[in-house]
Structures are given as C-alpha cells and as structure tokens.
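Quarterly update from the structural biology core.
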Amino acid sequence: MDQKIYSKPNIVQSSIECAKWPRCALVAAARPEVAWTNIVSERSMLSKSVTIHAKKEKVWELIGDPNKIPVYDEGVVEIDWVNKDTLKVKDVFRTGEGSFKTQVFTVKILKKEPPSLIQYEMERDGHKEFFTFTIEGEPKGRTSIFTLQFDSNFALANPRDVELLLEKICVNIARLSTDKDTFEKMVREFEPPGR
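Predicted structure, tokenized:
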C-alpha cells in the first residue's frame, strides 16, 4: 500500500452528475434502488444495499483501495497514511445549522478480504464507528450486490443524516462501478411507472 498523502483529484464533473441523480427524471432511470434496515436505539446500526450492474471485481477496484475513498465519499478531501493499516482522514461536512465544519479523524482497516469485504474502524470525539463494505457477485457475474453497514457504540442524534450519507455513498459506488455503455443503456430503456 502506498504510504503517501493523498489529496482529492478534480472530479467536479462526476460530482455534479451524481448530485443530479435524485432530481433528474431521465438520469433517475439508472439511479439504483437502495434498501435499508432498522435502527437499533441503544447503539446505531444502519445497512444499505444496492444492485450494481458490474462484476464483483470491478466494484472491488473502487472500494478495495482506501486511497479511492475521496472518489465516492464527497466529504473526504484528504487522506494521510500513518502506517499500512491506519489513515488520518480530513472530512468536510455541513452541520445541522447549515455551516461547514472540517474534522480530522483516524481510520483503521480492521479486515480486508479481497474481493468481498473491507471493514474500517473510525474514531472521532471519543466514539467508535464501524463501516463494513461487502460485495456479493451474482452467479452469472454480470451484477453485484453491494452492502454498506454502519455500526456504532452509541445512539445517533441524527440517524436520518447518516442514512442519507450511506445512501449517497452506495449510489456513487454503483454509478462509478457501472461502465458508461451500461449506464446509458439503462437510461434509454427506463420507462417511468404509470406510462
């Protein structure tokens, strides 16, 4: 693993495209459906799953490399490797009051099982959060089921915000893993309900 500082590349066009997904009727054709599970009150557990029109190995190319986190998680602006399993991550996010805040936190890679699973432990403000990325390939290999699970040792004050963040990450990973021709075909073949 490369032990250098990683700064976010200029991916403005991609970010703009992904931001349009929920709002554009035409592009919504290829926006994947995201399923989620319940929230546990004494601690927080959320899980999002999405079907991706790409082979498992293609999805792994994106999520299996921690250097690519800024590509699919738009809040992450910089990664600095501490050692082979630990990174310092700089994140910019909007607070509940609408202002922006920058926070640096430590992320450890707990488990990595290519091409199926990578698990991170994130510690900030004395709290631990766990993110588990899993990929299941379908038998014919043309699509994959990607699941992002969030688990923390505390109850969230804002579970809906975290849910939306997980959904956005799932959608970004689905879009970035799908090749251009497949994506355009999905848009062309989409028929809105009720037509």
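Residues 5-189 form a domain with the Alpha-D-Glucose-1,6-Bisphosphate; Chain A, domain 4 fold (CATH 3.30.530.20).
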